[in-house]
Write a structure and sequence with these properties.
The chain has a single domain, classed as Thiolase/Chalcone synthase (Peroxisomal Thiolase, Chain A, domain 1), CATH 3.40.47.10. About 30% of the residues lie in helices and about 20% in strands.
């Protein structure tokens, strides 16, 4: 089986739209939360979100969108893009340049693309309303491919001329880590030599606010404390959007091109809770099993871990469940392995989360730091016994475990190893 490496990354996120800005935010624990204007109405108890900066995509006509330099999107491409597909396209441009890929490297039979997103609820609602009110023939011709759940891979595969494997993943907040895991398998088994792994979400009112009725969103109106995983007063997550891309390549391609990877993907694991459609197992059983399977696939034990990037979204039930899972898996090492949740800075990106946080880990491993867990004033007693770091550490971990969990009790974990430059 081939070894698999991360050779490029691209970011459009609430804490920065390039690797340098993201790195500074992670090091300084600078968050992306704001009082979000679309939530500023009397019947909306949620006030805070973590929007993408510099892009303006609230117009129903994509030709009116504001797209920052250096990105230039052709008019014919814009016609089929949702906001999240736009973010993903810009992040893909970044990742291709970061990995040093040529046009021939991108478009060939050995390069594929796996993506994860929930589609664009706002665009879908506008199109359905227009169909109902103005007639079925008045909707945009490309309204379907611009709004349904597959819009990210539909657009990027077509516009970037991807000829290898392609599909989308739909396991809610575990989706893009599922994409990463199956992309790893395709390369390790020799089916593909290179895969683009993408997570993307709109991060607007239509994407975020449906979670309010589930009591999953924080009603804390203060952006500086709204997202606080592991804190005793955490009361829900802050929604975010954006697009993040990882370039995965085989060892043969890394050697052929003479590139230095960010990290090696050692393996991954998954397991289901079999418990509840929306709530994590109270003892974290599914996540614990996914963690064990990831460690086994990577050929390592708990003592080898240098850092865990937790899924922890800032919900009391979810954070407590994950802490139990981590304690169960780490055993005697629970008090020493550093743990943090970067969602304290970004908010929760739903299906974007896994790819985004894997990219954060890869970036930290190359640049020599370990991101801390921000906004903890008083640790939740449910998190006791873990080494939850509250400040960024000035050294990089050698091996990282990244956790993701989604609706239906889907749990996915990936293991990364630092590569010496």
């Amino acid at each position: 089986m081939s070894r698999v490496f991360i050779t490029g990354i691209g970011f459009i996120t609430s804490i920065g739209n390039d690797a340098s800005t993201v790195e500074a935010s992670l090091r300084d624990l600078r968050h992306g939360m704001v009082r979000y204007a679309p939530f500023d109405r009397e019947n909306c108890p949620v006030k805070v979100a973590a929007p993408v900066r510099d892009f303006v995509t609230d117009s129903p006509d994509s030709e009116d969108w504001t797209i920052p330099a250096p990105y230039q999107i052709r008019r014919e491409m814009l016609r089929s893009l949702s906001p999240n597909a736009l973010y993903a396209a810009c992040a893909l441009h970044q990742a291709i340049a970061d990995a040093g890929l040529s046009d021939a490297d991108v478009s060939n039979d050995e390069t594929g693309l796996y993506a994860a997103s929930a589609g664009s609820p706002g665009m879908l609602a506008r199109n359905l309303n227009k169909m109902s009110q103005a007639g079925v023939m008045r909707c945009p011709p490309l309204g379907v491919v611009a709004s349904i759940a597959g819009t990210v891979q539909f657009n990027l595969v077509a516009h970037f001329k991807i000829k290898g494997a392609s599909t989308g993943f739909s396991s809610a907040c575990a989706s893009s880590t599922h994409a990463l895991g199956f992309a790893y398998d395709d390369i390790a088994l020799g089916r593909q030599q290179r895969m683009f792994v993408i997570g993307a979400e709109d991060g607007n009112a239509e994407t975020i606010l449906p979670f309010a009725s589930m009591r999953a969103l924080t009603q804390n109106p203060d952006p500086d404390t709204a997202s606080r995983p592991f804190d005793a007063k955490h009361d829900g997550f802050v929604g975010t959007g954006g697009g993040v891309v990882l370039v995965l390549e085989s060892e043969a391609e890394v050697q052929r091109r003479g590139v230095t990877p960010y990290a090696e993907v050692l393996g991954w694991g998954q397991a289901s809770d079999g418990h509840n459609v929306a709530i994590s197992h109270p003892d974290g059983l599914g996540l614990a099993n996914a963690m064990r399977r990831a460690l086994k696939a990577a050929g390592i034990g708990p003592a080898d871990l240098g850092y865990i990037n937790a899924h922890a979204t800032s919900t009391p039930i979810g954070d407590a469940s994950e802490c139990k899972a981590i304690r169960a898996v780490l055993g005697a090492h629970a008090a020493t392995v550093p743990v943090s949740s970067t969602k304290a800075l970004t908010g929760h990106g739903l299906s974007l989360a896994g790819a985004m946080e894997t990219a954060f880990c890869a970036l930290a491993m190359r640049r020599g730091f370990t991101p801390g867990s921000a906004h903890i004033a008083e640790l939740d007693p449910a998190c006791a016994g873990l080494n939850i770091i509250r400040q960024t550490l000035p050294t990089a971990p050698d091996i990282v475990l990244n956790n993701s969990s989604g609706f239906g009790g889907a749990n996915v974990c990936a293991v990364l190893k630092r590569v010496s430059s």
